[in-house]
Amino acid sequence: MTARILVAVWIVAAVLGLSLAQSPARAEEESPEDLPAGKGRDEAFYGCTACHGFAIIRQQGMNRERWDATIQDMQVRHNMPEPDAADRELMLDYLAIAFPPRQRGRPNPFLNR
Questions:
Q1: Which of 17, 78, 79, 113 has the lowest CB atom count within 10 Å?
Q2: How much is the pLDDT for 78?
């Protein structure tokens, strides 16, 4: 009986931990002012935080084409509503400037000669 209780407690703890870990940060916890200033910041912030926290955006670094493909992917895979054309352009411009591609890994010291 004790083993069953422990297993049940473990399952409940795992489910609660998983649901808490996956709960998105909501707009009331973040604000556009937490992000780099720029034209399109509000559109990008509210367009993204409708489904997930902006922290996931801050972790990315992509060019404009990749940001566009990511928005398209969100529409197809996650049923994200399509932003109107003007808002989409503002979002893409902002994301590409505020969160551009980053160098991954360590630089090769032999290429800098």
A1: 113
A2: 92
Angle of helix 41-49 relative to helix 85-98, nearest 10 degrees, comes to 100
pLDDT digits (tens, 9 = 90+) for 46-76: 999 999 998 999 899 999 999 999 999 999 9
> Taking a C-beta distance cutoff of 8 angstroms, is the pair 105, 66 a contact?
no
- The answer to whether the pTM exceeds 0.85 is no
Query: Which domains are present in the chain?
Result: 26-98 (1.10.760.10)
Q: What is the per-residue pLDDT for 104?
A: 73
The CA distance from 26 to 22, in Å, is 12
| Best CA proximity match to 23, nearest among 15, 11, 31 | 15
For 41-73, give one letter per residue: b (16+ CB within 10 A) or e: bbbbbebbbeebbbeebeeebbeeeebbeebee
Intra-chain end-to-end CA distance of the chain, in Å: 69
